[in-house]
Structures are given as C-alpha cells and as structure tokens.
C-alpha cells in the first residue's frame, strides 16, 4: 500500500528540510556525546543518564525517519499557481465569524503544517474542509465537535 501524500507549502517544505538537517548534523552528535559520557560512568544497568540518552537517541531517529518519509511523499503546493477565485491549499482566506461578528484570517495548509492558534488551519479540519473550493462572498456552515458555526468568505489571496 502506498504512503499517504504529505501536502506542504514551500515554507513547510523548507522547515522540514531544516529540521531534518538539524537532527542529522547537530542533535545526533549531541546525543552520541551524552551516550559516550554516560558509558564512562560505569555500570550501565543503573545509569539514568545512559537510559535517558538512549531514549533521546531513539526519539531523534524516529523523527528523522518520519521526516524523511514525509519528504519522500511530499506534494508541494506552488502558491504562484493558485486559483485566486476559489479556496485551495495555500490560499489565504479572510472570513467573517458570524457568531462573534469578527474578521479572521487563515492560511489553508496540509495537516503537517497546521497551527490553528497561528492562523494556519489544516485542509482536513472541519473549517478547512468547509472552505475548500468555495468562493468569495459565500456563506458556509461548519459542523464542528462543539456545534455548528457560520462564516462568510470575505477575501481570498
């Protein structure tokens, strides 16, 4: 079975590549030094520093594997090719939250880059799903875990 595509913006791709480089070049060396130092303290069976360093090493290797898999299966959205008439991944959207009469801006991204508090919502979130393929001026109803919410689409960039 093929792996799930990882939808990324160009910025998201760069951040993952930078994190992978940091893990491989810097963090691996740091944890190797911790393991070497802990080994030098003698009996490994009761050495908490050694156990912690080995656990950290495993976490780093797991994250490296995960990032490499995401990058292999990356589908990078070219933001210059986006249709400005309808919402897609990579679109910046200004909506009116009709319950609170408040304008909010979101960037629609893949789930890997999602940061709702930072204004980056996933294309797989209830609001993201409801916004995809919609046009400026439309009013949408979002079925969310805490009820239904209405938004009017004000602008797409």
Helices and strands, with pairings:
Blueprint: E1 6-9, H1 10-39, H2 48-72, E2 74-77, E3 92-97, E4 102-109, E5 120-122, H3 126-131, E6 139-144, E7 147-156
Description:
This protein has 157 residues and is an alpha/beta fold. The protein has helices spanning 10-39, 48-72, 126-131; strands at 6-9, 74-77, 92-97, 102-109, 120-122, 139-144, 147-156. It has a five-stranded mixed β-sheet. Strands 1-2 form a two-stranded parallel sheet. Strand 3 (92-97) and strand 4 form a beta hairpin. It is elongated and about 70 Å long. 20% of the residues are buried.
Low-confidence stretches: none
Strand order of the largest sheet: 5-4-3-7-6
Give the % helix: 25-40%
Q: Characterize the largest beta sheet: strand count, sense, and whether it forms a barrel.
A: 5 strands, mixed
Percent in strands: 25-35%
Secondary-structure element string: EHHEEEEHEE
Question: What gyration radius follows from the Cα positions, in whole Å?
Answer: 22 Å
What is the overall pLDDT average? 91
Category by helix and strand content = alpha/beta
Label the overall shape: elongated
Distance between the termini: 36 Å
Number of strands: 7
Continuous helix count = 3
Brief account:
With 157 residues, the chain is an alpha/beta fold. It has three helices and seven strands.
List keywords for this structure.
elongated, five-stranded mixed beta sheet, 3 helices, two-stranded parallel sheet, single chain, alpha/beta, 157 residues
């Amino acid at each position: 079975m093929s792996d799930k595509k990882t939808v990324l913006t160009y910025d998201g791709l760069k951040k993952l590549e930078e994190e992978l480089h940091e893990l491989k070049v810097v963090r691996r060396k740091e944890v190797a030094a911790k393991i070497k130092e802990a080994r030098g303290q003698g009996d490994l069976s009761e050495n908490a520093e050694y156990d912690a360093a080995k656990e950290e090493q495993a976490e780093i290797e797991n994250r490296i594997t995960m990032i490499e898999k995401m990058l292999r299966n990356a589908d990078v959205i070219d933001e210059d090719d986006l249709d400005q008439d309808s919402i897609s991944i990579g679109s910046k959207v200004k909506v009116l939250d009709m319950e609170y009469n408040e304008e909010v801006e979101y960037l629609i991204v893949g789930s890997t880059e999602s940061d709702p508090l930072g204004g980056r919502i996933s294309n797989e979130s209830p609001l993201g799903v409801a916004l995809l393929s919609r046009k400026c001026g439309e009013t949408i109803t979002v079925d969310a875990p805490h009820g239904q919410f209405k938004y009017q689409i004000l602008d797409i960039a």
